[in-house]
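Researcher: Going back to the complex we discussed earlier. I've cleaned up the inputs and rechecked each line, so this should be the final set. Can you rerun the prediction on the complete assembly and write out the structure?
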Amino acid sequence: MKLEIKKHVPIAKDVYEMVLDCNVHMKPGQFINIKINDSHIPFLRRPISVANIEGGELTIIYKVFGEGTKELSQRKVGEELDCLLSLGNGFDISIKEDSILLVGGGCGVPPLFYLAKELSKKGKKITSVLGFSSKEDVFLEKRLGEYGDVFVTTDDGSYGIKGNVMDIIKDLDFDYYMTCGPEAMLLALKSNYPKNGQLSFEERMGCGFGACMGCSCETLTGYKRICVEGPVIKVEELI
Amino acid sequence: MKMKISLPGLDLDNPIIPASGTFGFGYEFSKYYDINILGSFMTKGTTLEERFGNQTPRIAETAAGMLNAVGLQNPGVEKVITEEFPKLKRVYNKKVIANVSGNTIEDYVKLSDILSKEPIVGALEINISCPNVKHGGMAFGTSAELASEITRKVKKVSKKPIYIKLSPNVTNIVEIAKACESAGADGLTMINTLVGMRIDLKNAKPVLANKIGGLSGPAIKPVALRMIYQVYKAVNIPIIGMGGVMNAYDVIEMMYAGASAVAVGSANLVDPMACKNIIDDLPKVMSELNINNLNEIIGRAHE
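Model: Rerun complete. Updated structure for the full complex:
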């Protein structure tokens, strides 16, 4: 589906917020898959999680990592992007627990905003812990603050608390956690909190909609494609 | 305008066939369009036992293409027949080309015997060219003797016509194609992926967990065309051509080189509507090029 770019602005170092004209219902944690241009280079789409959906607009927040996202960052308001929508399973927000911890690392933070919004509609108490490398990388702290306490850590201590998210989480009380971020962070959470959690994983994808088996992983409940049966996997299912 | 193509085991409404491994067992795509518009399609590479395949990353992007090292992930032939085919039959009423993969010659023979009995299977594609498995796979497709032996033994048990999927990773593809033809192959499908690699500049390690993978996409189309052209000249059995086909023009180019039908691979991964778009565009492109009947253009580049 071709979507028009309504807004496209930098919000942190190499991080851009893009608003697309799109009337669609998607779950927090689902993603869209973007064709960067009409040529064969870059060849594959770029899967990017949804940061918000509101009033006929879909927001993504992405970081420039390589040639594809660099070219994406140069697309202008008014241009159209070819996107596949509503991909992946998304977070299961029908949980009964009341106090929810959201943990985001770097470019894993964006889906947590939409997630916080939907959880708060259900009356959940939300605490967010966000980890970044440095002060210039920090984003979404204020907007997540609308839904509860937010703690920020940076690796170099230039903003918030020096250290990583695990240093903060050990002192917090929560019934359940939901997280998205680098694999090392997810695995640390899994080993410290092996119950009551959902983790959103990243993997290099071919298609993003289940055809190529490029992003499969093994879980206790069988093989899962990160793009269809993931990206969100319950911590109890991880090997 | 005539787009119908008749091949051993397959009466195709049009020459467009999604390639194995890029179309699953078909039903995933039926949420995007009615897959009955396809000529046929090649099912995901099937082995006797369930296979998880290689570790991830299994995908690396390249200029105008991609590398994959999936490693034949599939649920095994029993589940393909009892679970995947029934799901497919709910949305698809034509024949499939069943892709047969294995580690040993005995695997190929057993699998071909089992799969060729299935009514939904119109023909078998014998995959002797997968670059992503440690045993078997491409080893059979790079030796004329082994390719010939597999062809002969599979032909003996198969109830349906067999197409041998050739590897481009060889010195002389004509020799292997002729060996398959003499051993009784009903057709050839070509080309499988080219073995390649990418290296991550940040850590100086191969991007793929398997280190090497198969290159597909528009980057390989000239190689595919050259090989189809050479093989067409040397054999009298039909060729299903593939390698970087993205649009209806590419389909005509493949047929000019000598393909009787055309498989579409990685284009399906970039755009799930790729095959539908190609089928919709084909009449327009045919009239643009003054083509009335696709049967008349097979091998035209040789005239």
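Model: Worth noting: The interface with chain B takes residues 35, 40-45, 68, 84, 203-207, 209-218, 223 of chain A (CB under 8 Å).
Researcher: Good, that matches what I expected from the previous run.
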